User: What shape does this take?
Amino acid sequence: MEHSSDILLLTTKIKIPAPRKNYILRQGLLEQLSKCGDMSIIFLSGGAGTGKTTLLSSFIQEKKLKNICWLSLDSTNTNVYSFWLYFTAAINPFLKDEGSLFNLLRTNPDTKYMENLLIPMINQLWGDEEYYMVLDDVQCIGDEALVKTFEFFIEAMPANFHFFMLSREDPPVYLGPLAVSGRLLFIDGKQMQLTMEEGMAFLKDTMKLAGSEEELNQLNHYAEGWIGGLQLAAAAKAAGKYSGQLLRAGGGIASQYLTHEIIGALTKQEQEFLIKTGYLSYFDAEICQKLFQNLTKQDFNQLMERFMEKNLFIICLDEQNGIYRYHNILSEYLKQQFLCLPDEQRAECYKITAEAFEKRNDYEEALQEHCEAGNYNEVLRITKLMEGRIEAWSYLDRVPIELLFQDADLAAQCFLYNLGNINTKRCNDIYDKFKELYQDSDLFRFVDFAQIYFTTKDGILPQCPALTDEQMEQIPFGPVMKAVLLIENAGALLDRMKYEEAEACILKGIKIAAGLNSFIIFFAYNQLSQVYEEMGRLNDSFSCYAKSKEIMKTVSGLMGIDTNYYFGLAGVYIRRMELDQAKDVLEQTGKILTERHIHAGITDMTLAYHLAEMKFLCGENDTAVSYVEGILSEYPNYSVLSLGRLLYELACINKLSEDLSERFLNELEVSKKYRQQPFMKLLRARILFQRGETEVAFKETEDILAASRLHHNKLRLAEADILKIVMLSQMPKKEGVQRETNNLLVEAIHYSHKDRILMPFYLDRVTLLPLMKELYEKTAGNQFLSPEEASFLSDIIVICGGQTLKESSTEMLSAREQEVLSQLSLGITNREIAENLCISQATVKTHVLSIFGKLGVSSRMMAVEKARKDGLI
Assistant: This one.
């Protein structure tokens, strides 16, 4: 075993198994395997016991194959993080980065976009040296996210890298292109069957079975080429006693066979050893000496030798260190036999081996055994030792709530685990217990902040003041949960426009949780993205989401976290009017919710919210209004404050009803937290102005302008500038108003152009478009705007449906632009358009932008819709 401060690796999984002594040379298969240097993948398919592992390990030894690594998969490697962590550890000798890629993955356990980590790995593998990797038990790969990343690797891997894949089932990944290109060698279960000659050689030379030629031939026929069947029958010395039908049968017959013909033939000591170790994932002399007090290391070795002589299904994982495991057929049988032992015996075995695994720092194996035994106090104790690491959370979740709350820190960790999995019932149960025990303390706010994610209370966050350092110090949390408190605290600071303090809180939380829990780091970067979005620092927000994306790939066992990422990312795309990207993200989110059967109120409502907003920004106002009405009808328990942006968009097109305005103002009046938020003030000011309360509306807007300038909030400053322009445009014209309007517009552009904050301009395009065109005409001599700002203004005008001076409103599409537009209508990528039209991707992009300008649209989707409406396609 190897272990580090943050993750434990079972090194036996990446060791090449020693081939069986006196193995038979299967010349036909060895000749096929010799083609490995010309193949990308050699896939060996066959059921349990068909000899895949032995065949390959003997091939490696016979051919003295160099640059080869091995990874034996099992059920613990079915998630993206575990698989790629072990994969990276296995190929680490081939990489040129001295382990930096492995350490990066190891210290950031989290899961979804592995591609960006795989790219440098693939690049490092490229070269003249031939590398080979064996993946044993590939059928364990079934998780959709893992399949996706694995297919990405296969598609991009260099020609000098070759896979041997051993599986009991058909390939879990798509290998069609490799088959067509002649770089796939497939050896199926039928080919893996022993020929009669090979079967006899196996019985005589490998298994050293005595018996007449007739008896061995009969046994060989019974097995029908199944090497595992030969071993089963030969181990019981059942030559000629049972028919081949018995060997092919499963379930009860196989169990009876093992009981009567194998276990029954062993000594009581041997039987006890097998049954009492059958539940273990692996074992060695040290573990077994704990279970059997009088067992010496010599006894253990002799016992293993006897088992090997009797042809039992025991696999040597590490010959040098004497680490073994049972073949799956025998293991499954032995586990059932172990469950038949008296409760006291089972409990004692679990206790002993759990302690042994804990001593060698294999905490996960220890937790598994304590959970099986129901030793939940021990689960709590070991989980505490793991200091908030995510690997412990699934075991912690098996602890009954009453015991769980012996430690508030562990209860909080369990709450986060279920929150990440969107397990609303368990979240509610833990929440209720926190409320019962801690409602009047600062500790309760930890779970209270998340109530909207698992209830339909009102859809808005609670009104919590920021905690002081002294208050946080009093909360009995470990480092990981203290980091979460800091991240939560940032939300309270954000409401008060304390942006620098909010940012500092999150960065401090990231520093504390680094190397301990990647889910917390993921959560932190998502929160930091939202801080930056609120400030209008959209470029920084994108950078944070890029970090979240990488971390998310390594998070396992939390099925709901990626929805948080996608919703946040879609929001930033929407701010920038990058509607095609927003649409793609939302479609992906909807697919995740459907496939994983996630139907929590907050996720469904958030998706509907974003889809309604997309309709506003595509100019489909009537449809957008219907969407909002549908949300109000479908989610009547949610506060209208939670629909703030949709209400603002309704107000911009004068579709916000008097009733909805009144509800908003009344709820805002009693919500101190939301009353002080800049955006809520903006919406309130707009509503008051539309009601004729101009003086109050102007004062509210001026307050927002002053505060936004003071706190460097570019987004709210631009929105307030635009709102004031809208209000001034509807007031009686006074001297100086035009100059003020121009200055406000210049200021809005100045603070928006670097981060491409386009949405506020689009929402008030009816008022702004003539003003922006006039301003653009004045920029010829750089009187008001920098070249970058002028270019941004040109983009705004295009998105708002106008034309810049560079483009005549009567200008028609060129012939090439018409061709590109036709290709756009097919929904294909720029690369595909370039290939179809025999032009470069850069040229395609130039034509697409020109089309956008001429049609007055801002996305491919809008361009196609506008072209169809105008009869251009």
About this structure: Confidence is low (pLDDT under 50) at residues 1-6, 236-253, 804-810. The longest strand covers residues 161-167.
